[in-house]
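Worked problem 6 (solution included).
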Amino acid sequence: MLISYNWQRELTATKLDPQEVRERLTNVGLAVDAVEERDGDHVLDVEVPSNRGDCLSHIGIARELAVIEKSTVHSPKPKVENPEGKISDLARVEIRDPDLCPRYAARVIRGVKIAPSPEWLVKLLEVLGQRPINNVADITNYVLHEFGQPLHAFDLAKLGESRIVIRRAAKGETIKTLDGVERKLEREMLVIADATRPVAVAGVMGGEESEISSTTQDVLIESAYFNPASVRRTAKLLGLHTEASHRFERGVDPEGVLRAQERCVALICEIAGGVATADVLDVYPAALPAKSVELRPERVEAITGLQVPRAEVLRILTALGFEVREDNPARLIFTIPSWRHDVAIEEDLVEEVARHTGYDQIKTALPPASLAGEYHSSERRKRALRQAMSGRGFDEAISLSFTELTEDFDLIAEFAGRGRESAVTLTNPIIEESSRMRQTLLPGLLNSIRHNLNHGVRDVCLFETGRVFVVSEPGQLPLEREAFALAATGGAMAADRAQAERELDFFDLKGAIESAVAAMNLPPLDFKIAAVKHLRPGQSAAISIEGARVGSIGCLTESLAGAYKFRQPIFVAEVDLTALLEIKELPALYSPLPRFPAIVRDVSLLLDRKVTVAELLAFTLNLKIENLVATRFVGSYEGEGIPEGKRSVTLRLEYRASDRTLRDEEVDRMHIAVVSALKIEFMAEIR
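Solution. The predicted structure is:
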């Protein structure tokens, strides 16, 4: 934005020269790209941030300059001389879409003489890079640069029934804008219309049919506040970027609508003659509420490290327009000025103080922490988990915390039962396709596997730890849990081998996650057949620990595998790491090495396929046979010679006494008792 130095001198009586103004504005976050001398003036090219629409005006910049120099802004106090008549007798205004136009003000000036602008106005506009048109149009542009409030002048005689209707465009409507181009309007575009047709594109550009001409006598001055998002969308779709749309997109001052209009009307009456109506048609269905922000003075130093006296904090903020609503030793409460749309939280006020105190005053320092230099209580176990996974041949992945909506996956037990509405949606996502915070780690791991497969890497084993999120109560921060996920596909690679000896399966993943839990010194996991949305039926299981479900494991469903274009089985698991870390570690137990040898007996049982190995092992443990010290799974067999619906499972039972060597007949008696109990409990046959 171009700023006139001479105009700034009128507003602030600044004692700084143009180069000093450039340096000081840049230091407070309003970078001045260049200073150019033009026709006895100096023009500053200010780079105004997109969230600082209030600085797209000379008064806005003057406000910043006055804080820098500890002076005041001498803004004009307009007053219309000798107004006459009621506007309700001359025009009518109707807002049909207040969501897109919260406020619209109209005022009429009769008997205007359209002519070239006076020399001072022409010179000022030319310095700012504007082409003079006529006195009325030039005055609206002048006020735009002064207050940052776009205005538009209509020829009242060209408005059908002298009506202004603010509405969405009708299907198929067109308008010929001031640049002479016929434009097709869309349904969601906001237009200013008369009784029959659109006469302006709201917030963007006026229409050619209602523009001011040399024959114009009566003028209607528009001053409004339009929805910034609506103006931006319309301008983008029409390919129009104007001085007005640039400001409306960034948010003008809704409470400054009448002040800017009064200034414009007063100047027109002074320069172009005419008589203004005594009142204004100000349609404001629902006034935008004033907002307040609390500031604890000690937070300035806590956040920035700057030691700013309380009096200086008050000076800076009040000079910027923030009004003190409550002042006590513990806190300050400020009413946010209507032109500061960018301020909403305490940190915003801290930033205002910091930039006017000087960013260069912020010293380099480590942030304070009560546990500086120490591991978190869970860090040791997380490190053990990572080392265990690395030892099993898994590589650690780090995925983006933002993702698409993932409804195809069951969530960890703590988030179970939450649907589409539980996803935390970002209002301003970095990546448009990743507008939600992840509820599960699995999509990130599957994307990594797909990336590897697309690059010819067929054998992939990955794990990841990270936070997952769901919506909490209204107005509260999202719920967060740490999760631990694994994904594997391809062949099982042995050390120093170039080729996989076999394909990975469910049990490789099960063994890996059991190793991780064992490394964390936690109780063993339980695996039970369960239906999981993203896993194949019959190849999926629920994971529990100490009776509480914490996750799932299995083979990815064919539909999901097809969506990711996988042509080989993908095995995945995910557990609630927060739940694991909340479990107390097992005590470290030590015992002397056994003095007497063990006797091992194997037994092969023909069982129903639904009987799990875990059930067999748990049953033998619960028999509490005195000298039965261990039961291990050896293998299973299904195929030729085995009836349909059955399978053969071989267990290895280990017997040992602590005080003597067991005799064969003692072991036989114990072994027969165990086998008999297994046969009865599981209706098994001995093979």
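Discussion: Residues 37 and 43 are 6 Å apart (CA to CA).
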